Amino acid sequence: MSSSSTAPTVLDRFRLEDNVVVITGASSGLGVAFAQACAEAGADLVLAARRTDRLKTTAALVEKSGRRALIVPADVSEPEDAQRIADAAVAEFGRVDVLINNAGIATAVPASRETPEQFRRVIDVNLNGAYWVAQACGRVMPRGSSILNISSVAGLISGQLPQAAYAASKAGLMGMTRDLAVQWTGRKGIRVNALVPGYFPTEMGEQYPEGYLDSHLPMLPAGRAGDLAELAACAVFLSSPAAGYITGATLVVDGGLTII
Protein backbone atom coordinates (compact mmCIF):
# COMPACT_ATOMS: atom_id res chain seq x y z
CA MET A 1 0.00 0.00 0.00
CA SER A 2 1.40 3.41 -0.91
CA SER A 3 2.23 5.94 1.80
CA SER A 4 -0.24 8.39 0.27
CA SER A 5 -3.12 5.97 0.87
CA THR A 6 -2.31 5.61 4.57
CA ALA A 7 -1.68 9.29 5.32
CA PRO A 8 -4.34 10.91 7.52
CA THR A 9 -6.83 13.10 5.75
CA VAL A 10 -7.28 16.76 6.63
CA LEU A 11 -10.37 15.95 8.68
CA ASP A 12 -8.55 13.09 10.42
CA ARG A 13 -6.04 15.60 11.77
CA PHE A 14 -8.79 17.41 13.65
CA ARG A 15 -9.74 14.25 15.56
CA LEU A 16 -8.72 13.38 19.12
CA GLU A 17 -9.41 9.69 18.61
CA ASP A 18 -8.69 7.70 21.78
CA ASN A 19 -6.80 10.61 23.34
CA VAL A 20 -7.05 11.19 27.09
CA VAL A 21 -8.03 14.80 27.75
CA VAL A 22 -7.89 16.42 31.20
CA ILE A 23 -10.15 19.45 31.65
CA THR A 24 -10.12 21.57 34.79
CA GLY A 25 -13.10 23.74 35.66
CA ALA A 26 -15.24 21.13 33.91
CA SER A 27 -18.36 21.66 36.02
CA SER A 28 -19.84 24.60 34.11
CA GLY A 29 -19.58 27.04 31.22
CA LEU A 30 -16.58 26.70 28.95
CA GLY A 31 -15.43 23.52 30.66
CA VAL A 32 -18.66 21.71 29.76
CA ALA A 33 -18.44 22.88 26.15
CA PHE A 34 -14.82 21.77 25.89
CA ALA A 35 -15.62 18.36 27.36
CA GLN A 36 -18.51 17.74 25.00
CA ALA A 37 -16.50 18.83 21.95
CA CYS A 38 -13.49 16.69 22.85
CA ALA A 39 -15.75 13.67 23.38
CA GLU A 40 -17.36 14.25 19.98
CA ALA A 41 -13.84 14.39 18.53
CA GLY A 42 -13.13 10.93 19.97
CA ALA A 43 -11.44 11.57 23.32
CA ASP A 44 -11.93 10.10 26.77
CA LEU A 45 -12.19 12.73 29.49
CA VAL A 46 -10.82 13.38 32.96
CA LEU A 47 -13.12 16.02 34.46
CA ALA A 48 -11.84 18.04 37.40
CA ALA A 49 -13.57 20.74 39.47
CA ARG A 50 -14.68 21.50 43.00
CA ARG A 51 -18.41 20.93 42.38
CA THR A 52 -18.76 17.17 42.10
CA ASP A 53 -22.52 17.23 41.50
CA ARG A 54 -22.10 19.33 38.40
CA LEU A 55 -19.25 17.16 37.16
CA LYS A 56 -21.71 14.29 37.00
CA THR A 57 -23.78 16.27 34.49
CA THR A 58 -20.72 16.91 32.35
CA ALA A 59 -19.75 13.24 32.55
CA ALA A 60 -23.22 12.27 31.30
CA LEU A 61 -22.73 14.44 28.21
CA VAL A 62 -19.39 12.79 27.51
CA GLU A 63 -20.83 9.30 27.91
CA LYS A 64 -23.75 10.21 25.64
CA SER A 65 -21.13 10.72 22.91
CA GLY A 66 -19.89 7.19 23.50
CA ARG A 67 -16.72 8.11 25.39
CA ARG A 68 -15.53 7.45 28.95
CA ALA A 69 -15.44 10.08 31.69
CA LEU A 70 -13.56 10.09 34.99
CA ILE A 71 -14.60 12.58 37.69
CA VAL A 72 -11.89 13.99 39.96
CA PRO A 73 -13.03 16.47 42.66
CA ALA A 74 -10.21 18.98 43.00
CA ASP A 75 -9.23 22.53 43.89
CA VAL A 76 -6.42 23.33 41.43
CA SER A 77 -5.01 26.01 43.73
CA GLU A 78 -3.77 23.15 45.91
CA PRO A 79 -0.67 21.50 44.39
CA GLU A 80 -1.65 18.20 46.00
CA ASP A 81 -5.00 18.26 44.21
CA ALA A 82 -3.30 19.08 40.92
CA GLN A 83 -1.07 16.05 41.33
CA ARG A 84 -4.07 13.92 42.22
CA ILE A 85 -5.71 14.83 38.90
CA ALA A 86 -2.71 13.56 36.94
CA ASP A 87 -2.38 10.46 39.12
CA ALA A 88 -6.06 9.61 38.64
CA ALA A 89 -5.79 10.02 34.87
CA VAL A 90 -2.81 7.68 34.68
CA ALA A 91 -4.44 5.13 37.00
CA GLU A 92 -7.62 5.04 34.89
CA PHE A 93 -6.35 5.59 31.36
CA GLY A 94 -2.58 5.10 31.49
CA ARG A 95 -1.55 8.55 30.26
CA VAL A 96 -2.55 12.18 29.57
CA ASP A 97 -2.51 13.39 25.96
CA VAL A 98 -4.18 16.80 26.32
CA LEU A 99 -4.60 19.21 29.22
CA ILE A 100 -7.09 22.07 28.97
CA ASN A 101 -6.40 24.43 31.87
CA ASN A 102 -9.81 26.03 32.17
CA ALA A 103 -10.44 26.45 35.92
CA GLY A 104 -10.94 30.09 36.80
CA ILE A 105 -12.72 32.59 39.01
CA ALA A 106 -13.31 36.32 38.65
CA THR A 107 -13.90 39.30 40.90
CA ALA A 108 -14.87 42.87 40.15
CA VAL A 109 -13.56 44.80 43.12
CA PRO A 110 -12.14 48.35 42.95
CA ALA A 111 -8.37 48.25 43.46
CA SER A 112 -8.54 50.60 46.43
CA ARG A 113 -10.81 48.17 48.27
CA GLU A 114 -9.62 44.74 47.12
CA THR A 115 -8.21 42.74 50.01
CA PRO A 116 -5.00 40.69 49.83
CA GLU A 117 -7.10 37.56 50.30
CA GLN A 118 -9.37 38.41 47.36
CA PHE A 119 -6.45 39.16 45.06
CA ARG A 120 -4.47 36.09 46.09
CA ARG A 121 -7.44 33.75 45.64
CA VAL A 122 -7.89 34.76 42.00
CA ILE A 123 -4.18 34.38 41.26
CA ASP A 124 -4.04 31.08 43.16
CA VAL A 125 -6.80 29.51 41.06
CA ASN A 126 -6.35 31.11 37.64
CA LEU A 127 -2.56 31.28 37.36
CA ASN A 128 -0.92 29.20 40.06
CA GLY A 129 -3.48 26.43 39.66
CA ALA A 130 -2.86 26.20 35.93
CA TYR A 131 0.86 25.90 36.62
CA TRP A 132 0.44 23.15 39.21
CA VAL A 133 -1.75 21.08 36.88
CA ALA A 134 0.60 21.67 33.93
CA GLN A 135 3.52 20.51 36.06
CA ALA A 136 1.72 17.37 37.21
CA CYS A 137 0.43 16.41 33.75
CA GLY A 138 3.62 17.45 31.99
CA ARG A 139 5.52 14.78 33.90
CA VAL A 140 3.40 11.98 32.40
CA MET A 141 2.48 13.32 28.96
CA PRO A 142 4.04 11.51 25.97
CA ARG A 143 5.63 13.29 23.02
CA GLY A 144 2.99 14.75 20.75
CA SER A 145 0.84 15.93 23.66
CA SER A 146 -0.72 19.35 24.07
CA ILE A 147 -1.48 21.84 26.84
CA LEU A 148 -4.07 24.56 26.25
CA ASN A 149 -4.35 27.42 28.76
CA ILE A 150 -7.65 29.31 28.72
CA SER A 151 -6.89 33.00 29.11
CA SER A 152 -9.19 35.98 28.42
CA VAL A 153 -9.30 39.24 26.49
CA ALA A 154 -9.12 40.83 29.96
CA GLY A 155 -5.42 39.95 29.82
CA LEU A 156 -5.05 42.07 26.67
CA ILE A 157 -7.44 45.01 27.05
CA SER A 158 -9.49 46.70 29.73
CA GLY A 159 -13.15 45.81 29.87
CA GLN A 160 -13.77 48.98 31.88
CA LEU A 161 -14.45 46.86 34.95
CA PRO A 162 -12.39 46.82 38.16
CA GLN A 163 -10.71 43.44 37.56
CA ALA A 164 -7.05 43.89 38.45
CA ALA A 165 -6.62 40.38 39.85
CA TYR A 166 -8.47 38.69 37.00
CA ALA A 167 -6.64 40.71 34.32
CA ALA A 168 -3.28 40.00 35.95
CA SER A 169 -3.98 36.28 36.15
CA LYS A 170 -5.05 36.04 32.51
CA ALA A 171 -2.10 38.08 31.25
CA GLY A 172 0.13 35.85 33.36
CA LEU A 173 -1.31 32.75 31.69
CA MET A 174 -0.21 34.04 28.29
CA GLY A 175 3.32 34.65 29.55
CA MET A 176 3.42 31.22 31.18
CA THR A 177 2.22 29.66 27.92
CA ARG A 178 5.12 31.11 25.96
CA ASP A 179 7.72 30.04 28.51
CA LEU A 180 6.41 26.48 28.84
CA ALA A 181 6.31 26.19 25.05
CA VAL A 182 10.00 27.09 24.90
CA GLN A 183 10.88 24.71 27.72
CA TRP A 184 8.78 21.70 26.74
CA THR A 185 8.08 21.61 22.99
CA GLY A 186 11.55 20.58 21.90
CA ARG A 187 12.68 18.73 25.01
CA LYS A 188 9.45 16.92 25.92
CA GLY A 189 7.43 17.11 22.70
CA ILE A 190 4.56 18.93 24.45
CA ARG A 191 2.98 21.84 22.61
CA VAL A 192 1.65 24.66 24.81
CA ASN A 193 -0.80 27.28 23.54
CA ALA A 194 -3.32 29.78 24.91
CA LEU A 195 -6.93 30.36 23.90
CA VAL A 196 -8.26 33.86 24.55
CA PRO A 197 -12.07 34.13 24.61
CA GLY A 198 -14.04 37.34 24.37
CA TYR A 199 -17.71 37.51 25.36
CA PHE A 200 -19.35 34.08 25.68
CA PRO A 201 -22.47 33.03 27.61
CA THR A 202 -21.11 31.48 30.79
CA GLU A 203 -21.83 31.44 34.49
CA MET A 204 -18.94 33.87 34.98
CA GLY A 205 -20.48 36.26 32.47
CA GLU A 206 -23.59 36.48 34.62
CA GLN A 207 -21.53 38.55 37.05
CA TYR A 208 -21.36 41.50 34.64
CA PRO A 209 -23.31 44.59 35.72
CA GLU A 210 -26.81 44.86 34.31
CA GLY A 211 -26.73 46.26 30.79
CA TYR A 212 -22.95 45.81 30.41
CA LEU A 213 -23.07 43.30 27.54
CA ASP A 214 -26.00 45.02 25.85
CA SER A 215 -23.94 48.20 25.62
CA HIS A 216 -20.73 46.50 24.48
CA LEU A 217 -21.85 43.85 21.99
CA PRO A 218 -23.12 46.26 19.29
CA MET A 219 -19.62 47.77 19.12
CA LEU A 220 -18.02 44.46 18.13
CA PRO A 221 -17.31 43.84 14.44
CA ALA A 222 -19.18 40.53 14.87
CA GLY A 223 -22.06 42.36 16.58
CA ARG A 224 -22.86 39.51 18.96
CA ALA A 225 -21.57 37.31 21.76
CA GLY A 226 -19.77 34.14 20.77
CA ASP A 227 -21.35 30.71 20.68
CA LEU A 228 -19.73 28.18 23.03
CA ALA A 229 -19.49 25.67 20.18
CA GLU A 230 -17.36 28.16 18.22
CA LEU A 231 -14.86 28.42 21.07
CA ALA A 232 -14.89 24.68 21.75
CA ALA A 233 -14.04 23.99 18.10
CA CYS A 234 -10.96 26.20 18.47
CA ALA A 235 -9.95 24.28 21.59
CA VAL A 236 -10.23 20.97 19.73
CA PHE A 237 -8.16 22.39 16.85
CA LEU A 238 -5.31 23.59 19.08
CA SER A 239 -5.34 20.27 20.95
CA SER A 240 -5.37 18.13 17.81
CA PRO A 241 -2.70 17.01 15.31
CA ALA A 242 -4.08 19.69 12.96
CA ALA A 243 -2.17 22.20 15.11
CA GLY A 244 0.96 20.05 15.30
CA TYR A 245 3.25 22.92 14.25
CA ILE A 246 1.65 25.51 16.56
CA THR A 247 3.19 26.15 19.96
CA GLY A 248 3.59 29.21 22.16
CA ALA A 249 0.70 30.83 20.30
CA THR A 250 -2.18 32.92 21.58
CA LEU A 251 -5.40 32.45 19.61
CA VAL A 252 -7.88 35.27 20.24
CA VAL A 253 -11.54 34.32 19.69
CA ASP A 254 -13.43 37.51 20.41
CA GLY A 255 -15.54 38.63 17.45
CA GLY A 256 -13.07 41.44 16.83
CA LEU A 257 -13.20 42.99 20.30
CA THR A 258 -9.44 43.51 20.56
CA ILE A 259 -9.14 45.31 17.19
CA ILE A 260 -11.60 48.12 17.85
What order do the strands of the largest sheet run in, or round the barrel if closed? 3-2-1-4-5-6-7
CATH topology: Rossmann fold
- At the first level of CATH, the class is Alpha Beta
SSE sequence, one letter per element: HEHEHEHEHEHEHHE
The 3D shape can be described as: globular
Mean pLDDT: 94
Number of domains: 1
Rg, alpha carbons: 18 Å
Q: Termini distance?
A: 53 Å
Reported for the largest beta sheet, the result is:
7 strands, parallel
- How much helix is in the residues? 40-55%
Structural class: alpha/beta
Question: Can you tag this structure with a few keywords?
Answer:
alpha/beta; 42% helix; Rossmann fold
In short:
The chain has 260 residues and is an alpha/beta fold. It is 42% helix and 15% strand.
Model description:
The protein has one domain (13-254): Rossmann fold (3-Layer(aba) Sandwich). The chain is built from 8 helices and 7 strands, in the order αβαβαβαβαβαβααβ. It has helices at 3-6, 29-40, 52-64, 79-93, 116-138, 164-188, 212-216, 228-239, and strands spanning 20-24, 44-49, 69-73, 98-101, 145-150, 190-197, 250-253. Helix 2 (29-40) crosses helix 8 and helix 5 runs parallel beside helix 6 (164-188). The longest helix is centred in the last third of the chain and has 25 residues, at 164-188. The chain starts with a helix and ends in a 7-residue tail after the last strand. The relative contact order is 0.15. The model has no long low-confidence stretch (mean pLDDT 94).
List the helices and strands and how they pair.
Blueprint: H1 3-6, E1 20-24, H2 29-40, E2 44-49, H3 52-64, E3 69-73, H4 79-93, E4 98-101, H5 116-138, E5 145-150, H6 164-188, E6 190-197, H7 212-216, H8 228-239, E7 250-253
Parallel strand pairs: 1-2, 1-4, 2-3, 4-5, 5-6, 6-7
Helix pairs in contact: 2-3, 2-8, 4-5, 5-6
